[in-house]
Amino acid sequence: MAPPPEEIRSESVPAPAPAEVVTVDVLTASELKQQPQEDEKQVWKYLDVRTEEEMAKGHLHNSLNVPYMFVTPQGTREKNRLFVEQVASLFTTDQHILIGCQSGKRSELACVDLQAAGFMNVKNVGGGYIAWVQNGLPVVEPVPTPPTTTAPPTPTPTPAEFAT
């Protein structure tokens, strides 16, 4: 007796394998980022998936920021549930995107999610921002602002001081 049609379908159609994340070192990423292209979609853009607080300490010139995770008030990390949607508002699925974070782990996870959502040209930047800085590549660092100083209040003379 032949198996039911459902069993035949499940055996003959394997589950799609997840796309393998391509990781490039920071020197390759820097070269890709600088290559001029006639077609804007062929230009490699840099997406930084660190937190806003991490970005504020320094980042790559012309990078965009969509945090992959947020730090909760309890100090734990929580995945940004709107990450793919937010990236899709900035990029089309056929644009070339270099994905970086602090060390390369969050960006790798971000690449997996973006590939699953149909983004075809994403590369993980291995070593992340730490490796970028260690290799002497250019970054934008915040300009330190001096602390605001206020003059101490001028003491108001008391009536007794006027008498002397």
TrEMBL record:
Q: From which domain of life does this come?
A: Eukaryota
Molecular function GO terms recorded: catalytic activity
One Pfam family, short name: Rhodanese
- The record's region (Disordered) falls at 143-164
Do you know which InterPro entries this protein is assigned to? Answer: Rhodanese-like_dom, Rhodanese-like_dom_sf, STR17/STR18/HARC1-like
Q: Where are the bilayer-spanning segments?
A: none
Composition-biased stretches (Pro residues):
143-158
**Where do the Rhodanese domain residues begin and end?**
40-141
Q: Note the CDD domains from the entry.
A: RHOD
Name the UniProt record assigns to this protein: Rhodanese domain-containing protein
Native organism = Lolium multiflorum
